[in-house]
């Protein structure tokens, strides 16, 4: 029941974050964007019957690095590079977490869809990246490896927690893809909605994966 309550609070905070974004209310965004992540972090901390303490700690570290990235990305000054570094660290923690109970040695063909997505995104963004080309390539490689390992873990173990983590990883990739297009190719009206509407569920599902069936 506590996980359900925290999930509802996270959803309400997420909605208020999106409302704040579209109303241009920095106060709403500054309060509720970090608060949404706080509720999600509490879900990770209070997960029922964690699949392993090591997995729980690694996911928590990833969530904490993410909230730092959130703060950098919503500051008035452009802190995109610092945000990228923070989220890159988060994804490294997630990669390690996702390889804890799997071999981490997926057949190479599993990575083909992720490579194709990465190549498509680079083709779409490359002329606009300028000095950010190397950081974006590094970040994109790491997040796609994260999604690949989440998929590999589900394919190997076929458990509820691995499915939650995989869906969360995929949503994270989708959110960051929209964010990248918005940042480098120009804003479009629904971009902020999709970035946040994909990002928060991604983190929520990854946090839920600590307990596997905490809310289902």
Q: How would you describe the overall organization of this protein?
A:
This protein is mostly helical and 216 residues long. The protein has one domain. The protein is built from eight helices and no strands. It is globular. The termini are close together. The relative contact order is 0.14.
Q: Counting H and I runs of at least 4 residues, what is the number of helices?
A: 8
Query: What string gives the helices and strands in order?
Result: HHHHHHHH
Rounded Rg: 17 Å
Q: How far from one another are the termini?
A: 11 Å
Structural class: mainly alpha
> Overall 3D geometry?
globular
- Average pLDDT taken over every residue: 90
Poorly predicted residue ranges: none
Counted beta strands: 0
- Helix coverage percent of residues? over 70%
Number of domains: 1
What percent of residues are in strands? under 5%
- Major beta-sheet overview: none
Which keywords apply here?
globular; 216 residues; mainly alpha
Helices and strands in order:
Blueprint: H1 2-23, H2 26-45, H3 53-74, H4 80-98, H5 112-129, H6 133-157, H7 160-185, H8 191-208
């Amino acid at each position: 029941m506590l996980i359900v309550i925290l999930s509802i609070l996270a959803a309400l905070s997420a909605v208020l974050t999106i409302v704040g974004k579209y109303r241009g209310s920095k106060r709403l965004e500054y309060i509720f964007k970090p608060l949404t992540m706080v509720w999600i972090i509490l879900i990770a901390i209070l997960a029922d019957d964690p699949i392993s303490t090591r997995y729980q700690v690694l996911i928590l570290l990833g969530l904490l690095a993410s909230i730092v990235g959130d703060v950098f990305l919503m500051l008035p000054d452009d802190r995109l590079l610092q945000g990228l570094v923070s989220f890159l660290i988060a994804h490294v923690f997630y990669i390690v977490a996702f390889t804890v109970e799997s071999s981490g040695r997926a057949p190479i063909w599993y990575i083909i869809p992720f490579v194709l997505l990465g190549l498509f995104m680079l083709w779409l963004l490359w002329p606009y990246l300028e000095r950010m080309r190397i950081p974006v390539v590094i970040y994109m490689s790491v997040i796609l490896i994260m999604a690949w390992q989440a998929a590999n873990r589900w394919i190997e173990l076929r458990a509820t927690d691995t499915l939650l983590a995989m869906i969360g990883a995929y949503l994270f990739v989708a959110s960051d893809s929209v964010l990248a297009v918005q940042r480098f190719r120009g804003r479009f009206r629904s971009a902020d909605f999709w970035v946040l509407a994909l990002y928060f569920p991604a983190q929520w599902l990854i946090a839920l994966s600590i307990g596997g069936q905490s809310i289902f």
